[in-house]
Design goal:
three-stranded antiparallel β-sheet, about 200 residues, mainly alpha, globular, single chain
């Protein structure tokens, strides 16, 4: 059975960029709902369920659980940690985007392009080692066959429940504030190093 990951910080620790009210709603309602419904489906399917079918065909609740379980760790409390990419992360960004400014602009543009609910991801191709920024609808995730089995290095939730109480319809402002103030670059560095070791 799936178990909700504990938040690695307090509900109010992302203020003023994300409110405690938003975090309560996001974690206690939406994430809890995805986890509970995914567990209900696991019970219904039974122990002999094909994992590939679960991942590819019954994506919604499993994706909601998985994406959010990553997302909590991709954020850090306001004013703590490093506010810019670390060594291996910075090298990948410079190699594939030229510099962080272009990476940031590309990420924001992809967030604006995501029509409706979904996610924006910086991903690495496990075969070529190249990275790119993509968006996925709803609770799809980059490892799915449709997206080439890419590994997520950084992701931001752009469902309205992640930002609407704080930013209303200004999604780009929310993504910009998260990129500039809340990314846990230490955790992203760990993901980059691990992903590169698998290539």
């Amino acid at each position: 059975m799936l178990k909700r990951y504990a938040l690695p910080y307090g509900y109010a620790d992302l203020i003023p960029f994300i409110s405690a009210e938003t975090m309560h709603l996001h974690y206690d309602k939406h994430y809890a709902g995805y986890t509970d419904k995914a567990n209900d489906e696991l019970l219904r399917l039974g122990v002999d369920a094909d994992m590939q079918e679960i991942v590819e065909k019954r994506i919604y609740n499993f994706g909601g659980f998985y994406n959010h379980s990553l997302f909590w760790y991709m954020l850090k409390p306001t004013g703590q940690g490093q506010d810019y990419p670390m060594a291996e992360t910075a090298r990948l960004i410079e190699r594939d985007f030229g510099d962080y400014a272009h990476f940031r602009t590309t990420f924001l543009d992809e967030a604006k392009k995501r029509f409706g609910s979904g996610w924006v991801w910086w991903v690495i191709d496990p075969i070529t080692g190249s990275t790119e920024i993509i968006n996925t609808p709803y609770q799809d995730f980059p490892e799915m066959t449709d997206y080439g089995g890419k590994l997520p290095l950084l992701g931001i939730d752009v469902w309205e429940h992640a930002y609407y109480l704080d930013y209303h319809n200004k999604r780009a402002d929310y993504v910009e504030q998260v990129l500039d103030n809340l990314i846990n670059w230490e955790y992203i560095e760990e993901r980059v190093i691990k992903a590169k070791s698998l290539i």
